[in-house]
Amino acid sequence: MNIEQLYTSCLAQGAYYIESNGEVAIIDPLRETQSYVDKAEKNNAKIKYIFETHFHADFVSGHIDLAKKTGATIVFGPNAETSYDIYSAKDEEAFKIGHITIKTLHTPGHTLESTTYLLIDENGKDHAIFSGDTLFLGDVGRPDLAIKSDLTKEDLAAMLFDSLRNKIMTLDDDVIVYPAHGAGSACGKNLSKETVGTIGDQKVTNYALRVDMTKSEFIKEVLDGIAPPPQYFAKNAMLNKTGYDTFETVLKTGNIPLTPQEFEAMANHNDALVLDVRPQSDFIQGHIPNSIFIGLNGGFAPWAGALISDIKQPIVLVVPEGKSQEAVTRLSRVGYDNTLGYLEGGIESWVAAGKDIETLESISAEIFAERVKQNDVNILDVRKDGEYQSMHLENAQHFALDYINQHMNAVSKDKTYHIHCAGGYRSVIAASILKARGFHKLVDVAGGFGAIKKTDLPTSEFICPSTL
Questions:
Q1: Which of 22, 202, 257, 285 sits in a 20 to 30 Å window from 397, CA-based?
Q2: What's the whole-model pTM score?
Q3: Contact 246, 34 (CB under 8 A)
Q4: The predicted structure's pLDDT at residue 189
Q5: What secondary structure letter does DSSP report for 410?
Q6: Is 18 helix (H, G, I), strand (E, B) or coil?
């Protein structure tokens, strides 16, 4: 028996390759599937099943493409309805893969169809669970994504409580937990950086598995502090239910080199978004007017999903040399399949063609501190709410980058804003969006709050009322 966790850091997502006696099961595959096919062929094995733990909202799964390539059966748990052929498993139904068995444990709560897969080894022992978004390390899945007119988030949280206690906490403490996500995912609020654990560890460390916790306490604690889901979540879930273009088609139509003239014409003719994915330092030094920065060197795909409101938005890319395929691939992972090409030769070819560029003023935290002391400076903090509440500069205006599109009326084109985040990535994204909307009096604070804290500027900390 061979189990491999194939973890993608940008999405904080774990897919799984399970092999026994020449047969393979894939759990929650990524959009690009050829690596699974190649791995199986290298091992002279055949992919028999593709198990989906639920309809993922934070990424587009590769289950449909993989089934077409291999003839494998797509398996969902109970209550899953799709526009393509699947096998809808019954609760506790068993599937043979070589000498091992995978049993479905229907665990609704995150979504109605959410299913945990229990792997039983060659000796008949419960070995591991693939818990999807039902159980994370340190947390459980958010129960507010599958709300219907007759079903509230409280209803789903109650289902999740029962699923955890009746299906998962009854397993032996040494059963391994393989979750779908780790820290950085928006599918939970307190996920661990670890990506593999055990049932026993989680009973001790996971707040949601406290033995003495009542259902009402669970509902309250699970729902407390959940930020609204990113806008692309519902769209990705729908793609996973209804289908999508093949990844190879998306790559073929999106990874096309364009001369500066072709690039400009393509952008203008299609009303395309110019998306600059280079490091933020390169964007600061020179970028195409009205382009938006979301760098590949950060949480690229989730930020694209959170900030580009139309999933069908035509996109043309400004990329570091050799990174166009990576950019198209990572956009497709969250359903942005309408990339039309990239600027061949990068920003240098744009300049060589005599076309205009703009820059963004960026200053050190030390210079920023001096300006604050000497002048009445407008400070814009674009970190998440929890980061801001933990510690922030006095008199700083705040809204999270995630919701910048809803806060455009909170800033003025007549004022100069010094923008910071935690480390410098999100502040440049925010500045690029504001610049594209006609805000030009913007200054980026390099190094973000991490660098600002090392200055002597006064800060304020949030104090929980219960401690007063």
A1: 285
A2: 0.93
A3: no
A4: 80
A5: G
A6: strand
